[in-house]
Amino acid sequence: MCTGKCSRCIGVTLFPLAACAIVSNILLYFPNGQVLQLSEITDLVWFFQGILGAGILVILPAFMMLGAGGAGCCANRCGMLLSVLLALLGFAGGVYCAVFSSMGLIGGPLCDTGDGEYLYPFRNNTLEYNYLFNQTTWSICKEPENIILWNIVLFSVLLAIGVIEAILCLIQVTNGLIGFVCGTCMRRRKTNISGM
């Protein structure tokens, strides 16, 4: 069993997830590819859940995991302990992203309902009457075009990435603690049976 290899594998997996989260968050600033006024962009985008939470706060532990799981570090207990602490930071970033992305999904987008005024038409709906379960209500948003689908897809991607990153960071916490206690690699000893 090699906790160093596991750490390295988790670190490598976190990089593309963090990059996707950053790109998804940036795309939320340009609904349907349009450049809007700052006051016309959904407020929950400004919490930077993809850029900060699932992006920067996960990239830092990913670098440490790669270092702790690098070749020739079979007794790198200090690196594994540091990777545990940073994995907790990554876990917090993933949870942060998941929470604000789910709030963005439930609350719905900021849109023009046809009178030129931007508002949140779905904010006070109960879950029973939520727009996510009733596609016929989507026609209430006139501008930007396809804003509801745009927000649903990108907030869903961010939610999924946040959950996956949080799970991977929790796995690294366990893996790192095992690596700290036992060393990053436990090699099997070969027995010499030639003399028997």
TrEMBL record:
<feature type="transmembrane region" description="Helical">
    <location>
        <begin position="80"/>
        <end position="106"/>
    </location>
</feature>
<feature type="transmembrane region" description="Helical">
    <location>
        <begin position="12"/>
        <end position="32"/>
    </location>
</feature>
<dbReference type="InterPro" id="IPR008661">
    <property type="entry name" value="L6_membrane"/>
</dbReference>
<protein>
    <recommendedName>
        <fullName>Transmembrane 4 L6 family member 1</fullName>
    </recommendedName>
</protein>
<feature type="transmembrane region" description="Helical">
    <location>
        <begin position="148"/>
        <end position="181"/>
    </location>
</feature>
<keyword id="KW-0812">Transmembrane</keyword>
<dbReference type="GO" id="GO:0016020">
    <property type="term" value="C:membrane"/>
</dbReference>
<keyword id="KW-1133">Transmembrane helix</keyword>
<keyword id="KW-0472">Membrane</keyword>
<comment type="similarity">
    <text>Belongs to the L6 tetraspanin family.</text>
</comment>
<feature type="transmembrane region" description="Helical">
    <location>
        <begin position="44"/>
        <end position="68"/>
    </location>
</feature>
<dbReference type="Pfam" id="PF05805">
    <property type="entry name" value="L6_membrane"/>
</dbReference>
